[in-house]
Specification:
alpha/beta; 8-stranded parallel β-sheet; binds phosphoenolpyruvate; binds magnesium ion
């Protein structure tokens, strides 16, 4: 990775005001390399988000709401000032408090009050609201990031440590803002199609409409999902592997993303211009006009390719030798079901329900809320199959961000997925009842994640019986469903003959199958180069799973990221796969590969590939 250092001014004012047009900036151009996780080119100004503030609302307000938003910040700040003054007063009259002497505390509160009342901070926050139409929380945290970096670069250790005070003060104001919700309607502008982010657009002096890209050290999958409704046209994170769940959500958003970019979030400043090349896994910071023109060209080419692929939307997915291939979608939220159908999916092969449970601060969705969500997804399919996976929480998908603190053991091998559900039967029964209720509205397949033992399936069947009995007792209508297992633990693939009689279908989760077969954490960028879908052990497990399931007449699909990657389409077809589940954005590229394939010719080649010590060297016919 190339790094660049540069000198920065110390100032608590907004270092990139609207008048700093792209052409006038004299910042050093540099590139940062990471892992390419979602293709395409994004060009925009950087919004740097610290992990701790990733849950701050990010949306744009309407111009007429600026005054109200500025007032919100002012009122929240005044509330905190009042609190601190009151506290100071109480301390002065109570000498028995805490481990600090009151004098020290009073002095600390003085520092906080001084920071809160700093005029340049207020002016800068106001600038983000007025110039960019950021909502109050976003404006405040953006300015916090600008100042925090300035603190980081201070020589004086005492001054450097004052950053913690500033963070505490900002957190207090953010909390006060939470108690005073915006009266402004969420007015996030629609994301522009990639092709329209042409170079000329960036040269406009209209800062309000500039595309924005998000740069963060780390983002949880739930944070990422929150940003799905937001205004960003690209993402870069310091950490994460290619199939980490954060990367998966980025891919599902179909916007360029790079993860594992190490110290990207420290090198990029709030408001820098950046190019994200999601195909190459590169970020260019402060690009020159020539570099920008080059990427603008690439962006337009990609748009032409998309338009070409779009013509395949209504073409049946049939190979040259007449095999019909099922193309399913992976979704994270009920509302994704509609876009999956619009993208031409034959059904949903994987609904990752855990996203409904994340970031709920202990209040998990109850049966009615879940039933409504699943029903909405089922109804959107208009008779196509909806495969609902039971909650797969744990490892890199914690329920809450803080849960990461508990991960000192080995979360990927711990209480995750079906293990978690079976360990909490009340929670699992609630989910099962909700899924059964949704099954009254269309065909539902229930998919169990991380199955390793057939008793896990039997226990689930027993719980399903109990859930039905509970619904009967209440007189609630429900539907029938098929039960399937994810094959994503090597044990399940190796002993498939033991699992298969227990289920109606199986779905291969290549993301975890690769992780557990090769013993590499899929979320750890340090071992990302070892994450190899073409490793002979992985290929043999996939091949035998498809073959055994086909022989037994059981439905088999692949719903891991390999299914949506056109580089593996021919091989999976050759191994006998006839059902692929992927992000809707990948459907047409995979369909294109299918239309060009002849499974009869691919079959002997695929057999050669899985027997080879170096599978990549076996030439495709
Ligand atoms: C997989 O492991 O391949 C899979 C589809 O599930 P997830 O990525 O949610 O673990
Ligand atoms: Mg998995």
């Amino acid at each position: 990775m190339k790094r660049a250092r540069r000198s920065r001014r110390f100032s608590t004012t907004n270092s990139a005001k609207a008048s700093d047009g792209f052409c006038q900036r004299h910042d050093v151009t540099f590139t940062v390399h990471g892992l390419a996780v979602s293709g395409g080119i994004a060009i925009g100004r950087a919004v740097c988000v610290t992990s701790t503030r990733a849950d701050v609302a990010h949306y744009k307000i309407a111009p007429e709401q600026v005054a109200a938003e500025v007032a919100r910040v002012r009122d929240a700040r005044n509330t905190v000032v009042d609190e601190l003054v009151r506290l100071q007063h109480d301390l002065l009259h109570d000498s028995s408090s805490g481990s600090h002497t009151p004098q020290e505390l009073i002095a600390l509160l003085d520092v906080h009050l001084m920071l809160l009342q700093d005029v340049s901070m207020s002016v800068a926050v106001r600038g983000w609201i007025e110039d960019r139409l950021y909502n109050a929380e976003w404006a405040l945290s953006s300015q916090m990031d600008v100042i925090a970096r300035e603190f980081d670069e201070m020589e004086d250790a005492y001054l450097r440590e004052r950053k913690a005070d500033l963070e505490q003060v900002v957190d207090k104001v953010l909390r006060a803002l939470r108690g005073a919700p915006s009266t402004a309607a969420i007015a996030a502008p629609k994301r522009k199609p990639r092709g329209q982010q042409a170079q000329q657009e960036l040269m406009l002096d209209d800062d309000i409409d500039v595309p924005l890209v998000l740069i963060a050290h780390d983002l949880s999958p739930a944070d990422m999902l929150q940003f799905k409704r937001d205004v960003f046209v690209g993402f870069v994170t310091d950490v994460g592997g290619i199939t980490s769940h954060t990367a998966i959500v980025a891919r599902s958003m179909d916007i360029p993303a790079v993860v594992g970019a190490r110290s990207a979030s420290q090198l990029v400043r709030q408001d820098d211009w950046v190019i994200i090349d999601g195909d190459e896994g590169v970020m260019v910071v402060n690009p020159t006009a020539i570099v920008l023109a080059e990427y603008g060209f690439k962006q337009r080419q990609a748009q032409v390719e998309r338009e070409r692929l779009a013509r395949l939307r209504n073409t049946p997915s049939i190979t040259l030798d007449g095999e019909t291939i099922e193309l399913l979608a992976n979704i994270e939220q009920p509302e994704d079901a509609e876009s999956a159908v619009r993208a031409g999916a034959d059904g949903v092969g994987l609904f990752r329900t855990e996203f409904l449970f994340m970031g709920r601060k202990g209040h998990l969705p109850d049966e009615d809320e879940q039933a409504a969500a699943y029903t909405r997804a089922v109804q959107a399919m208009s008779g196509r199959t909806m495969t609902i996976r039971s909650i797969d929480i744990g490892a890199d998908k914690p329920l809450e961000r803080v849960a990461k603190l508990d991960t000192h053991l080995n979360p990927a091998l711990g209480l995750r997925a079906i293990r978690w559900s079976l360990a909490d039967p009340a929670m699992f029964l609630t989910q099962l009842r909700a899924i059964l209720r949704a099954a009254a509205f269309g065909p539902v397949h229930l998919l169990l994640p991380m199955v390793a033992h057939n008793r896990e399936i039997r226990q689930t069947r027993n719980l399903l019986d109990r859930a039905r009995a509970q619904l009967d007792k209440r007189g609630v209508t429900y539907g029938e469903l098929l039960l399937g297992a994810m094959i994503e633990i090597p044990a399940a693939a190796i002993a498939l003959d033991v699992i298969l009689p227990e289920v109606d279908f199986v779905s291969i989760g290549t993301n975890d199958l690769i992780q557990y077969t090769l013993a590499i954490d899929r979320a750890d960028e340090a071992v990302a180069p070892l994450y190899d879908p073409m490793h002979p052990a992985v290929l043999r497990l996939i091949a035998s799973t498809i073959a055994i399931a086909n022989d037994a007449g059981k439905l088999v699909s692949v719903c891991g990221e390999m299914a949506g990657d056109p580089r593996y389409t021919a091989l999976l077809l050759g191994l006998g796969l006839r059902s692929f589940s992927m992000h809707p954005a990948q459907l047409l590229a995979v369909k294109q590969s299918i239309l060009r394939s002849d499974t009869a010719k691919l079959q002997p080649w695929a057999q050669q590939v899985i027997k080879s010590a170096s599978p990549r060297t076996i030439k495709q016919p």
